[in-house]
């Protein structure tokens, strides 16, 4: 009876050891990716190095190389995770709009979600808009960009039902371009000044879309008074 129990305990321990090693490995990877995000945000992808990432993570370069062969592999893994999170976020941020929703509310809701994501993950902007990102990441970014434009077009079509496809595509490109330009300014500031730039970005998008939308979406009392 005791021998069987000892054998069961040994089998259980043998099963648990790989799980513990896997859990430790996942924690180490998360630690390295967090450090890489800090380094990429601070120095940019091109100037970053595996030594700097290892130093930021508080580990030896040898430990880093147990999980990633080079800087590009780290950037790709970090980028993949951030892109996945971004896709989940904009699925909610760019949901169809109720025709009764005020334009100001619709714009503010989408902008706030995107700004919150980018402020929480500044490495996303550093990687996706840097001058020398890895090829695979550039491809992922292009795919993300195309999907994002498609979702913006879908959002616009919900309150511009009579617009021609070419007009919707052009308007979507303008909205995304304006947002990216504003985002760079937002990320360059902090605190109250950052909040002020976020508000300016919303104003720019609202004033661009307002003549196109007209009275299709609801208008807040403040906007009616302003116009």
Automatic annotation (TrEMBL):
DNA-binding region in chain numbering: 49-68
InterPro entries: DNA-bd_HTH_TetR-type_CS, Homeodomain-like_sf, HTH-type_TetR-like_transc_reg, HTH_TetR, TetR_C_22
Keyword Nucleotide-binding: no
Extent of the signal sequence: none
Residue intervals of the HTH tetR-type domain: 26-86
Superkingdom of source: Bacteria
Keywords, in A-Z order: DNA-binding
Chain spans, region Disordered: 1-26
UniProt entry tagged with the keyword DNA-binding: yes
Source organism phylogeny: Bacteria, Bacillati, Actinomycetota, Actinomycetes, Kitasatosporales
Protein name from the UniProt record: TetR family transcriptional regulator
Single annotated GO MF: transcription cis-regulatory region binding
């Amino acid at each position: 009876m005791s021998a069987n129990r000892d054998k069961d305990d040994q089998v259980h321990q043998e099963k648990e050891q790989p799980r513990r090693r896997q859990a430790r490995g996942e924690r180490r990877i998360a630690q390295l990716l967090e450090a890489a995000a800090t380094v990429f945000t601070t120095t940019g992808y091109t100037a970053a190095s595996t030594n700097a990432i290892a130093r930021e993570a508080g580990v030896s370069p040898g430990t880093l190389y147990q999980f990633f062969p080079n800087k590009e592999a780290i950037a790709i893994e970090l980028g993949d995770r951030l892109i996945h999170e971004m896709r989940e976020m904009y699925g909610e941020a760019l949901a169809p709009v109720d025709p009764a929703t005020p334009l100001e509310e619709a714009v503010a809701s989408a902008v706030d979600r995107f700004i919150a994501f980018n402020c929480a993950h500044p490495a996303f902007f550093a990687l996706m808009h840097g001058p020398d990102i890895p090829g695979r990441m550039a491809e992922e970014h292009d795919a993300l960009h195309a999907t994002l434009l498609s979702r913006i077009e879908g959002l616009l079509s919900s309150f511009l039902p009579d617009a021609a496809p070419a007009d919707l595509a052009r308007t979507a490109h303008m909205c995304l371009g304006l947002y990216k330009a504003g985002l760079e300014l937002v990320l360059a500031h902090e605190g109250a000044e950052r909040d002020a730039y976020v508000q300016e970005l919303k104003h720019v998008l609202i004033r661009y879309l307002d003549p196109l939308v007209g009275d299709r979406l609801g208008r807040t009392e403040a906007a009616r008074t302003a116009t």
